Protein backbone atom coordinates (compact mmCIF):
# COMPACT_ATOMS: atom_id res chain seq x y z
CA UNK A 1 0.00 0.00 0.00
CA UNK A 2 1.19 3.49 -0.84
CA UNK A 3 -0.03 6.42 1.25
CA UNK A 4 0.72 10.03 0.46
CA UNK A 5 -0.13 12.50 3.18
CA UNK A 6 -0.12 16.23 2.53
CA UNK A 7 2.77 15.87 0.07
CA UNK A 8 4.29 19.18 -0.94
CA UNK A 9 6.91 20.19 -3.47
CA UNK A 10 7.86 23.56 -4.89
CA UNK A 11 10.48 24.68 -7.37
CA UNK A 12 11.37 28.23 -6.31
CA UNK A 13 8.08 30.10 -6.09
CA UNK A 14 6.25 27.49 -8.17
CA UNK A 15 4.23 25.20 -5.91
CA UNK A 16 3.74 22.02 -7.91
CA UNK A 17 2.39 19.72 -5.18
CA UNK A 18 0.33 21.67 -2.66
CA UNK A 19 -0.72 18.95 -0.23
CA UNK A 20 -1.42 15.71 -2.07
CA UNK A 21 -3.34 13.04 -0.14
CA UNK A 22 -3.69 9.71 -1.89
CA UNK A 23 -3.89 6.04 -0.95
CA UNK A 24 -3.16 3.19 -3.33
CA UNK A 25 -4.35 -0.01 -1.62
CA UNK A 26 -2.28 -3.19 -1.82
CA UNK A 27 -2.76 -5.03 -5.12
CA UNK A 28 -4.82 -2.27 -6.72
CA UNK A 29 -4.09 -0.32 -9.88
CA UNK A 30 -4.28 3.45 -9.54
CA UNK A 31 -3.99 5.74 -12.55
CA UNK A 32 -3.20 9.40 -12.07
CA UNK A 33 -4.50 11.76 -14.72
CA UNK A 34 -3.98 15.48 -15.05
CA UNK A 35 -2.96 18.10 -17.58
CA UNK A 36 0.56 18.75 -18.77
CA UNK A 37 2.60 20.32 -16.01
CA UNK A 38 0.14 19.33 -13.27
CA UNK A 39 2.90 17.52 -11.38
CA UNK A 40 2.31 13.86 -12.16
CA UNK A 41 5.98 13.14 -12.86
CA UNK A 42 7.09 15.15 -9.83
CA UNK A 43 4.75 13.05 -7.69
CA UNK A 44 6.25 9.82 -9.02
CA UNK A 45 9.78 11.15 -8.55
CA UNK A 46 9.01 12.06 -4.93
CA UNK A 47 7.83 8.51 -4.21
CA UNK A 48 10.95 7.06 -5.83
CA UNK A 49 13.21 9.46 -3.93
CA UNK A 50 14.41 11.21 -7.10
CA UNK A 51 13.00 14.48 -5.77
CA UNK A 52 12.89 15.45 -2.11
CA UNK A 53 9.48 16.64 -0.95
CA UNK A 54 9.26 19.89 1.02
CA UNK A 55 6.66 18.48 3.35
CA UNK A 56 4.23 15.68 4.02
CA UNK A 57 4.77 11.95 4.26
CA UNK A 58 5.16 9.00 1.88
CA UNK A 59 4.40 5.66 3.46
CA UNK A 60 4.95 2.35 1.69
CA UNK A 61 3.40 -0.52 3.63
CA UNK A 62 3.30 1.78 6.62
CA UNK A 63 7.01 2.66 6.48
CA UNK A 64 8.30 6.13 5.78
CA UNK A 65 9.85 5.95 2.31
CA UNK A 66 12.30 8.77 3.01
CA UNK A 67 13.89 6.91 5.92
CA UNK A 68 15.75 3.61 6.10
CA UNK A 69 17.65 1.58 3.53
CA UNK A 70 17.18 3.09 0.03
CA UNK A 71 18.42 0.01 -1.83
CA UNK A 72 16.05 -2.32 0.01
CA UNK A 73 13.24 0.15 -0.63
CA UNK A 74 13.95 0.46 -4.36
CA UNK A 75 14.36 -3.32 -4.71
CA UNK A 76 10.60 -3.59 -4.16
CA UNK A 77 9.79 -1.35 -7.13
CA UNK A 78 9.58 -1.99 -10.83
CA UNK A 79 9.35 0.84 -13.29
CA UNK A 80 8.38 1.20 -16.94
CA UNK A 81 9.69 4.54 -18.12
CA UNK A 82 8.31 6.75 -20.82
CA UNK A 83 9.87 5.68 -24.15
CA UNK A 84 10.98 2.37 -22.55
CA UNK A 85 14.42 3.94 -21.79
CA UNK A 86 16.47 0.88 -22.74
CA UNK A 87 20.26 0.86 -22.76
CA UNK A 88 21.23 0.84 -26.45
CA UNK A 89 24.62 -0.77 -25.84
CA UNK A 90 23.21 -3.80 -23.99
CA UNK A 91 21.47 -6.76 -25.62
CA UNK A 92 17.79 -7.14 -24.80
CA UNK A 93 18.27 -9.85 -22.18
CA UNK A 94 20.76 -7.72 -20.23
CA UNK A 95 18.30 -4.84 -20.34
CA UNK A 96 15.59 -7.09 -18.92
CA UNK A 97 17.89 -8.61 -16.32
CA UNK A 98 19.58 -5.29 -15.52
CA UNK A 99 18.75 -5.35 -11.83
CA UNK A 100 19.47 -9.06 -11.55
CA UNK A 101 23.05 -8.58 -12.74
CA UNK A 102 24.11 -6.07 -10.08
CA UNK A 103 23.32 -4.73 -6.63
CA UNK A 104 21.03 -6.15 -3.97
CA UNK A 105 19.16 -8.48 -6.34
CA UNK A 106 22.25 -9.93 -8.11
CA UNK A 107 21.95 -13.52 -9.44
CA UNK A 108 24.38 -15.75 -11.35
CA UNK A 109 24.50 -14.69 -15.01
CA UNK A 110 22.94 -17.88 -16.42
CA UNK A 111 20.04 -17.66 -13.98
CA UNK A 112 19.50 -13.96 -14.76
CA UNK A 113 19.38 -14.82 -18.47
CA UNK A 114 16.84 -17.59 -17.85
CA UNK A 115 14.62 -15.18 -15.93
CA UNK A 116 14.98 -12.58 -18.70
CA UNK A 117 13.88 -15.10 -21.34
CA UNK A 118 10.92 -16.18 -19.22
CA UNK A 119 9.83 -12.54 -18.75
CA UNK A 120 10.27 -11.84 -22.46
CA UNK A 121 8.00 -14.77 -23.18
CA UNK A 122 5.45 -13.39 -20.72
CA UNK A 123 5.25 -10.14 -22.68
CA UNK A 124 4.91 -11.99 -25.99
CA UNK A 125 8.52 -11.94 -27.24
CA UNK A 126 10.32 -15.09 -28.37
CA UNK A 127 13.74 -16.13 -26.97
CA UNK A 128 15.55 -15.07 -30.17
CA UNK A 129 14.84 -11.44 -29.21
CA UNK A 130 17.09 -11.87 -26.15
CA UNK A 131 20.33 -11.37 -28.07
CA UNK A 132 19.17 -8.52 -30.26
CA UNK A 133 19.91 -4.89 -29.46
CA UNK A 134 17.13 -2.38 -28.69
CA UNK A 135 17.74 -0.45 -31.93
CA UNK A 136 16.77 -3.57 -33.90
CA UNK A 137 13.27 -3.59 -32.37
CA UNK A 138 10.10 -1.64 -33.18
CA UNK A 139 8.70 0.84 -30.65
CA UNK A 140 6.05 -1.66 -29.55
CA UNK A 141 8.65 -4.38 -29.02
CA UNK A 142 10.80 -1.96 -27.05
CA UNK A 143 7.83 -1.25 -24.78
CA UNK A 144 7.39 -4.97 -24.24
CA UNK A 145 11.07 -5.24 -23.33
CA UNK A 146 10.62 -2.31 -20.92
CA UNK A 147 7.67 -4.12 -19.37
CA UNK A 148 9.67 -7.34 -19.08
CA UNK A 149 12.40 -5.36 -17.32
CA UNK A 150 9.87 -3.76 -14.95
CA UNK A 151 8.64 -7.18 -13.81
CA UNK A 152 11.97 -9.07 -13.92
CA UNK A 153 12.64 -8.78 -10.21
CA UNK A 154 9.01 -9.58 -9.33
CA UNK A 155 8.35 -6.24 -7.65
CA UNK A 156 5.49 -5.65 -5.22
CA UNK A 157 4.93 -2.18 -6.62
CA UNK A 158 5.15 -1.15 -10.28
CA UNK A 159 5.15 2.35 -11.72
CA UNK A 160 4.16 3.01 -15.31
CA UNK A 161 5.10 6.40 -16.71
CA UNK A 162 3.12 7.13 -19.89
CA UNK A 163 3.26 3.46 -20.93
CA UNK A 164 1.63 3.88 -24.34
CA UNK A 165 3.13 7.16 -25.55
CA UNK A 166 4.27 6.91 -29.16
CA UNK A 167 2.44 3.65 -29.92
CA UNK A 168 -0.31 3.18 -32.46
CA UNK A 169 -3.77 2.58 -30.94
CA UNK A 170 -3.69 -1.17 -31.49
CA UNK A 171 -0.25 -1.63 -29.96
CA UNK A 172 -1.25 0.73 -27.13
CA UNK A 173 -4.21 -1.57 -26.45
CA UNK A 174 -1.94 -4.62 -26.44
CA UNK A 175 0.44 -3.00 -23.94
CA UNK A 176 -2.48 -1.86 -21.75
CA UNK A 177 -3.88 -5.39 -21.68
CA UNK A 178 -0.47 -6.86 -20.82
CA UNK A 179 -0.02 -4.36 -18.00
CA UNK A 180 -3.46 -5.20 -16.66
CA UNK A 181 -2.98 -8.98 -16.85
CA UNK A 182 0.55 -9.06 -15.50
CA UNK A 183 -0.02 -6.76 -12.54
CA UNK A 184 -3.15 -8.75 -11.63
CA UNK A 185 -1.38 -12.10 -11.80
CA UNK A 186 1.55 -10.76 -9.74
CA UNK A 187 -0.81 -9.17 -7.22
CA UNK A 188 1.30 -6.04 -7.58
CA UNK A 189 0.27 -2.56 -6.53
CA UNK A 190 0.40 -0.40 -9.68
CA UNK A 191 0.65 3.35 -10.09
CA UNK A 192 0.40 4.72 -13.62
CA UNK A 193 0.53 8.22 -15.02
CA UNK A 194 -0.93 8.76 -18.44
CA UNK A 195 -2.75 11.15 -20.73
CA UNK A 196 -4.28 8.31 -22.66
CA UNK A 197 -7.92 7.78 -21.67
CA UNK A 198 -7.89 4.37 -23.37
CA UNK A 199 -5.09 3.34 -21.00
CA UNK A 200 -6.97 4.74 -18.02
CA UNK A 201 -10.01 2.61 -18.76
CA UNK A 202 -7.93 -0.48 -19.52
CA UNK A 203 -5.50 -0.32 -16.61
CA UNK A 204 -7.21 1.42 -13.70
CA UNK A 205 -9.11 0.09 -10.74
CA UNK A 206 -9.03 3.59 -9.29
CA UNK A 207 -8.41 6.96 -10.89
CA UNK A 208 -7.12 10.14 -9.30
CA UNK A 209 -7.03 13.51 -11.00
CA UNK A 210 -4.23 15.88 -10.07
CA UNK A 211 -5.01 19.54 -10.58
CA UNK A 212 -3.83 22.73 -8.88
CA UNK A 213 -1.31 20.76 -6.83
CA UNK A 214 -3.94 18.57 -5.18
CA UNK A 215 -6.02 15.50 -5.86
CA UNK A 216 -9.08 17.06 -7.38
CA UNK A 217 -11.10 13.82 -7.60
CA UNK A 218 -10.51 10.17 -6.90
CA UNK A 219 -12.72 7.14 -7.26
CA UNK A 220 -13.23 3.79 -9.00
CA UNK A 221 -12.82 3.88 -12.77
CA UNK A 222 -16.47 2.87 -13.15
CA UNK A 223 -17.45 6.21 -11.59
CA UNK A 224 -15.20 8.32 -13.79
CA UNK A 225 -17.88 9.20 -16.35
CA UNK A 226 -20.32 10.24 -13.64
CA UNK A 227 -17.83 12.07 -11.42
CA UNK A 228 -19.88 15.27 -11.49
CA UNK A 229 -16.58 17.18 -11.36
CA UNK A 230 -16.26 19.74 -14.17
CA UNK A 231 -12.45 19.41 -14.21
CA UNK A 232 -12.65 15.64 -14.63
CA UNK A 233 -15.37 15.98 -17.26
CA UNK A 234 -13.32 18.44 -19.28
CA UNK A 235 -10.25 16.25 -19.04
CA UNK A 236 -11.89 12.99 -20.06
CA UNK A 237 -13.78 14.57 -22.94
CA UNK A 238 -10.72 16.51 -24.07
CA UNK A 239 -12.70 19.72 -24.33
CA UNK A 240 -10.90 23.01 -24.84
CA UNK A 241 -13.62 24.83 -22.93
CA UNK A 242 -14.17 24.39 -19.21
CA UNK A 243 -12.50 25.27 -15.92
CA UNK A 244 -9.06 24.05 -17.06
CA UNK A 245 -7.37 26.85 -18.98
CA UNK A 246 -6.19 25.59 -22.38
CA UNK A 247 -3.35 27.52 -24.02
CA UNK A 248 -3.80 27.91 -27.76
N1 LIG B 1 13.56 19.91 -11.55
C1 LIG B 1 12.65 20.86 -11.77
N2 LIG B 1 12.95 22.16 -11.64
C2 LIG B 1 12.04 23.13 -11.82
N3 LIG B 1 10.76 22.90 -12.18
C3 LIG B 1 10.40 21.63 -12.34
C4 LIG B 1 11.31 20.54 -12.14
N4 LIG B 1 10.63 19.38 -12.37
C5 LIG B 1 9.38 19.73 -12.70
N5 LIG B 1 9.23 21.07 -12.67
C6 LIG B 1 7.99 21.80 -12.96
O1 LIG B 1 6.94 21.18 -12.24
C7 LIG B 1 5.73 21.21 -13.02
C8 LIG B 1 5.14 19.81 -13.09
O2 LIG B 1 5.96 19.01 -13.91
P1 LIG B 1 5.66 17.49 -14.20
O3 LIG B 1 6.74 17.02 -15.12
O4 LIG B 1 5.46 16.74 -12.95
O5 LIG B 1 4.28 17.57 -14.98
P2 LIG B 1 3.43 16.40 -15.59
O6 LIG B 1 2.07 16.47 -14.96
O7 LIG B 1 4.16 15.10 -15.47
O8 LIG B 1 3.34 16.87 -17.09
P3 LIG B 1 3.34 16.07 -18.48
O9 LIG B 1 2.02 15.38 -18.50
O10 LIG B 1 3.43 17.15 -19.51
O11 LIG B 1 4.51 15.13 -18.47
C9 LIG B 1 6.10 21.82 -14.35
O12 LIG B 1 5.70 23.16 -14.35
C10 LIG B 1 7.60 21.70 -14.41
O13 LIG B 1 8.14 22.74 -15.15
TrEMBL record:
Entry keywords, A to Z? ATP-binding, Nucleotide-binding, Transport
Q: Does the keyword Lipoprotein apply?
A: no
Which InterPro entries does the entry link to?
AAA+_ATPase, ABC_transporter-like_ATP-bd, ABC_transporter-like_CS, P-loop_NTPase
Q: What is the superkingdom listed in this entry's lineage?
A: Bacteria
Q: Which GO terms describe its molecular function?
A: ATP binding; ATP hydrolysis activity
Say if the entry is tagged with keyword Glycoprotein.
no
Q: Which residues form the signal peptide?
A: none
Domain ABC transporter, by residue range, is 2-237
User: In its UniProt entry, what is this protein called?
Assistant: Glutamine transport ATP-binding protein GlnQ
Which Pfam families does UniProt cross-reference here? ABC_tran
